Amino acid sequence: MLGDVLLINEKHKSAALSIYSHLQEKLRTKKKGYRFIVAISGESGAGKSELSHSLALLLKKQGQRVKILHTDNYYKVPPNLRNEWRKQKGISRVGVKEYDWALLKRNIKEFKEGREALMPCIDVVSKQIDKLITNFGDIDILVVDGLYAIKIKEVDLRVYIDLTYLETKVNQGSRGKEDIDDFRFQVLEMEHQHMLALKPYADLVIDKDYVVNEAKVDAS
Length: 220
Fold this sequence. Notes:
This protein is an alpha/beta fold. It has helices at 10-27, 48-61, 79-89, 101-112, 169-175, 182-198; strands at 36-42, 66-70, 116-123, 128-135, 141-145, 157-161, 204-206, 212-214. Strands 2-5-1-6-7-8 form a six-stranded mixed beta sheet, covered by helices on one side. A hairpin with a 5-residue loop joins strand 7 (204-206) and strand 8 (212-214). The radius of gyration is 17 Å and the shape is globular. The protein starts with 9 loop residues before the first helix and ends in a 6-residue tail after the last strand. The model has no long low-confidence stretch (mean pLDDT 91).
């Protein structure tokens, strides 16, 4: 997202280092030239963008070619119109169906094939959706972040930040991306319910202390 505010600290860097280790372990099982995707999901203010950026910088430092894809860019309704749209359509419309999954899947396919892609890019200041042309030909690893990023079928490593919107109020206010009012909290609660349904998809879970743990496998 163009103009996004990142609040990176040591916890993000430490978690990124742990994720990097798991990523490299999985990558060693792939054939040379395999285009790897890691997805990072979490609720508003949980640190998805900060963690993604920290991981990408670490990968770059180790000589791997990496790009970040923010799924917040793929909402069907632009941010300058989304709040009013949600109020008109009803709070029940908030959730995974708000994404343009067809476009997102197309861009993922273009990454996998190493092709040029036309991608949406939200300008945080104007709240408009711009268009970005990128060439995936030189990219080895795609870091995808967003609420529902781990839902993407092609993802190789799924990371879930286990922090709720009630625990991230300070971060939400600091970034200033959304007006914090009663309706916003209704939206956050709906997103929270959708996130709970996605948690079982995770390979790694980041706890409230920002410690990275392997997801527990349900023996049943």
